[in-house]
Amino acid sequence: MRRVQPMRTFSAGLALALGLAGLLPQAAAAQSKRYIGFGDSITYGVGDEKNPDGLGGYTPRLQSLLNTRGFPATVVNAGLPGEDTAGALTRINSVLQRGGDVLLLMEGTNDINAKVSEETTLANLNQLAVRAENRGMQAVHITIIPRLAGAGTDGNNRVTGELNGKLRDLAWFKQRRLADPFEVFWNETPDFTQLYGGGIDKLHPNAAGYDLMAKVIADALTNVDSVPPVTGLVDPTDDEQNVPSSTPIRVDLYDFGAGIDLANTKLLVNGAPVTATPTGTPQQASFNYTPPTPWVGVIAFGIQTQDLANPPHKVNRTLSTFVVAGTAFLRGDIDRNGRVDGVDLLAFAPRFGARTPDPRYKTFADLNGDGVVDGTDLAILASNFGKTSF
What does pTM read for this prediction? Predict the structure, then answer.
């Protein structure tokens, strides 16, 4: 830095200081970014008890976090309760006309409520991002947060999880940033129900939930890696029935931070690593595993992986459990090992009382197929207790 000469007078030094002071706000303003939080009622902030009059949610919290971290920002709340992605397409141009640098895009919850196809939702989300990019803005995808059990649609979050997996694929393919609150809520939070208001509302976070959403999004925008490797396509899907015995397993992995540690990434089948090497890059990799012998019974598969962050974020997780076609089971053989025993009773117990769409509900525990795991199912299990089928 150039040293000020001691011969300068106080008035000259004061003038210089005042001149620099006048330039600093302009420099800061030039670096500041305008973010548009665009989405439905979750973006708008419904359920935020700290801002009951609306315009709460993650956007004011995100603005505070970005400014605190040294990323000058204005975050505008452009959420509209009840909107689906088709409605968003009719509104986006008027929002973008107001100007901005970054579009934060989280839509799709209401598409799931209306049972809109995933392909349509993703096409609409891409078109929303393209319209922002055509105006010179950056588009950032945000995964849809999970919903509580008992929600009228997708209470087990199967559709939400699959849609988010495909959204990760879209973001990677289009080279866009992605913030992943679904992963943090669903897999990294011991009891994510504490992040919701409860009652009849199964979709909207409370203040603590919006706090966490803002942090996840801020981390993605400021290059803080706080999310482990995540999945895209998982096939066969969880609880899928009558799967052909030669069906290969496919798992796509993504990491929008430091990258996947491929050397420490394994595919697990029934809890044990199999001979399979992931192909791809640290940002996107895939397993494609064909069984050396035909599948039999029930197959559970998952991943063991970590990222390249320091320290690494580690994952050891079952992704899917499927039933092979042609496998004969006694009713009550919950673990599908060919025998009805105490292990099955222990597996049955935590699902007792569950009904669709409770995430505890599993088809294999609903022994009479009436949509609820109850005393009738327990009686069926008891009638076969101690018997074997293969």
Answer: 0.82
